[in-house]
Write a structure and sequence with these properties.
single chain, mainly alpha, two-stranded antiparallel ribbon, 48% helix, binds heme C
């Protein structure tokens, strides 16, 4: 059956990813199975990055307001200041490294890199393509009617008035080339947690880097990061940065918790230093998130999630082998997204955080 709420391509690609580490890289544009890119993978990734600024085809040419929003975020400013901070120096010293911008250990999370004179160089902070996927292959498709290269370029905001079929065609073709668009809530969440749980044991255990942040998808995506201009009420003439609809917010909340748990368990499965700081932090994180999911299911029964969650041990500890859990949780999350448009989930509204991380950009 064709589902209208989630991308069927996203589901198929995710299933493939669990049989091939390479598929995961292509799918997320960011992380490999153990959360890390090899040198070759990083190079292939950087080669497809266009960059938000300073080129003819850049994102800012057509997405000025999104770009203005981004330039007010930590994701942008990390490029300017974090490498000069005493906290960064301390981490680098502990690792025996000297420069944050030259260290491969730092750049996969703090920067979007491109190729300069044959090697991978950070060129921006966490920018458009860190979240939406490197764009070289999908750029020309994503703004054309039906993703048809001979078709007409959409004008700003016209996407809103396209038929659902045309939009699905357009974004589907871009998705096949690595774009992560706004309907791909699962992939978006995977990408955020792929950096925000800090899945690099060495940086955490040896460098003393924080072992992940209190990241939650709704509060962290609807504050300083939010850039909902093209879907806003006033688009295309006077776009505003609208909050996501309550239905979407509910789906983001549930997906965020599920992907948080999936990522923590995947990180645990790839740990090499048992009982190390990173391992213990991920166990705490997984237990905390599982408790939140149990509270959620006490408010409302969600048939797509229950079997997966009840199949998990009651509590995770140092000896839990978590390697089989991520794919079970992943499949459940995608089934959830396919079955729910969010309209019937009002029972969870009291659980969704209302305070945001940073203030939304107002123009
Ligand atoms: C796997 C991803 C990842 C890697 C690798 C990584 N960082 Fe971070 N780093 C993060 C995230 C995510 C945050 C922000 C967390 C937050 O805001 O809550 C962060 C925050 C920081 C901070 C601010 C910490 C604070 O307490 O305010 C410093 C300093 C830092 N990183 C330095 C480094 C250095 C130096 C390296 C390389 C040796 C590095 N990071 C590698 C993901 C990473
Ligand atoms: C030539 C103009 C142009 C350029 C350059 C461009 N875009 Fe777009 N983009 C568009 C148009 C037009 C739309 C459809 C807007 C609408 O929905 O009305 C769009 C839509 C999008 C969407 C939303 C799709 C969805 O989820 O609904 C994303 C994300 C996006 N672009 C990202 C980028 C990124 C990242 C870059 C730079 C790598 C970029 N774009 C460069 C014109 C452009
Ligand atoms: C490529 C890695 C990466 C991805 C993907 C990523 N982030 Fe971040 N994010 C970071 C790093 C690194 C920092 C901290 C930068 C610093 O302080 O130096 C950060 C900081 C933030 C902050 C500011 C936190 C603060 O303490 O002020 C917010 C909010 C945020 N991220 C939200 C998100 C959301 C939402 C997503 C997914 C839609 C996301 N991030 C995806 C790496 C990433
Ligand atoms: C931290 C990750 C992150 C970064 C960086 C980022 N985006 Fe997004 N983008 C998202 C998320 C998440 C959504 C979906 C948000 C929602 O629907 O609430 C989105 C949605 C969009 C949309 C569709 C908005 C709508 O109204 O439907 C466009 C267009 C877009 N992004 C373009 C860009 C451009 C251009 C840049 C760089 C200037 C950029 N994004 C940077 C995460 C990011």
């Amino acid at each position: 059956m064709l589902n209208i709420y989630a991308s069927t391509r996203e589901t198929l690609r995710t299933l493939a990813m669990f049989t091939s580490a390479l598929a995961l890289l292509v799918f997320s544009g960011q992380i490999s199975a153990d959360g890390w890119m090899s040198e070759e993978q990083e190079k292939a990734h950087a080669m497809n990055v266009i960059g938000p600024l300073k080129s003819d085809d850049n994102c800012t040419n057509c997405h000025g307001q999104e770009s203005d929003t981004w330039q007010q975020t930590r994701h942008y400013s990390t490029f300017k200041d974090q490498h000069r901070s005493p906290e960064a120096d301390k981490i680098l010293e502990a690792l025996g490294e000297r420069s944050m911008k030259r260290s491969a250990e730092c750049r996969q999370c703090h920067y979007t890199s491109s190729i300069k004179r044959g090697s991978v160089k950070p060129s921006f902070g966490v920018s458009c393509e860190s979240c939406h996927g490197p764009a070289k292959e999908w750029l020309a498709l994503h703004s054309k009617e039906g993703g048809d290269l001979a078709g007409e370029d959409l004008k700003w905001g016209e996407g809103k008035n396209e038929s659902a079929e045309q939009r699905a065609l357009r974004l589907g073709k871009a998705e096949d080339k690595g774009m992560i668009h706004s309907d791909m809530i699962y992939s978006i969440a995977k990408n955020c947690f792929g950096c925000h749980t800090v899945p690099n044991e060495k940086v955490v255990n040896t460098g003393g880097h924080i072992a992940g942040s209190d990241f939650e998808l709704v509060s962290w995506s609807q504050g300083e990061v939010r850039h909902n201009f093209s879907s806003s009420a006033g688009a295309p003439d006077s776009p505003t940065n609208s909050p996501s609809s309550i239905e979407k917010t509910r789906r983001l909340y549930v997906t965020g918790l599920m992907v948080d748990l999936e990522t923590s368990l995947n990180n645990i499965a790839h740990v090499s230093e048992k009982g190390g700081i990173f391992h213990m932090a991920m166990i705490t994180r997984a237990n905390k998130t599982k408790t939140k999911l149990t509270e959620l299911l006490a408010k409302i029964s969600i048939a797509e999630l229950e079997p997966a969650l009840t199949s998990l041990p009651k509590v995770f500890d140092e000896s839990t082998d978590t390697s089989e859990f991520p794919k079970v949780l992943s499949a459940a999350t995608l089934q959830f997204l396919a079955a729910h448009d969010g309209s019937k989930l009002a029972a969870i509204d009291g659980l969704i955080p209302t305070k945001t991380k940073g203030t939304p950009y107002a123009g």
